[in-house]
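pasting protein-disulfide reductase for the record, 329 residues
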Amino acid sequence: MAECGEEEGTIDDNINWTTLSSSFKGNKVKKKNLEPGKAYTFRYRSRDRLGWNLFSPSSKPSWTLQSGQNRLENGPQIHAVETGAVMLGWQCVEGASSYELQISDAAYPVWQTVSTNIQHPAVKKKGLDANTKYIFRVRPLFAHEDSASWAFSPPSSEISPPILSQLLSSMLPVNLINNQNQAVSQGALAGKVVAIYFSAHWCGPCRKFTPQLATFYNQMKAARRPFEVVFVSCDGDAGSMMSYFSEMPWLAVPFDDDKREQIQSDYQVSGIPRLMVVGPGGAIVAENAVGMPLSEQLVTHWASGGTTAAPQKAAPPPAGGCCGGGKCG
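structre below
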């Protein structure tokens, strides 16, 4: 069994390393009795039958709290990401009048305040660069107490806003709609597994499959999985599309947008329902997932770039237009 050693050092012009132990057996340790309000950095190395290996790179500085200070145990959590933006959330602190959120480039930690007047323990930060990794920290503020008694939380995990794949950015219109007919930017799809759902109300197999897909979609939302659906209607008029779309919890291409028919032509949609799945990087990972046993594991597989073939037992789509030219049902 390899043995581990760990050292600490205070942050000065020259780091003075102090060995904590050379006999750790695991990979986790709690260091006590550090000075309040001081920054420390750590490094470690392992030992095998040939001797000690080289030390790891030193950790980023970690500050101990001042005596009497409090802080949130965990840093802000990443709830959702999209092109140029991230949704953050954190633990609610009783009695807080607002929260102060700070941001930093993860590679060069220099903290800047985003706002000191965030009223709820959640916020959407926009205007982020997709080529930069960011970290965030937060602390509560109090109207009638000394806010200095609360230090900032530990930093969040690093986050870099995703970029919408070239395939989806060219396939879809700039603005999609939700079932309230409100515009939603295609950028909301960045970093997600996106299922393009070709369907129509007049198609019986579609009406049977849609509730099944909606149940799975809601499960993935509850599990915070990066999964989205975009409805491409094969209905003959806007009224029929919107009536059918009102039953769906996802997004859609507007009926009167030229892209709606262009997508059907480009991807040779000759039968519905069809669920074409596109991975975050822009690869088509499933030509038609209708009939597949949809699961969280499958979404994770797709998110990592894995592909799946249509199940052999699935019947081929009928010839002609959507769902056999409108003759099914």
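Residues 1-5, 311-321, 325-329 have pLDDT under 50 and may be disordered.
Helices lie at 166-171, 204-222, 238-245, 258-266, 296-303, 323-326.
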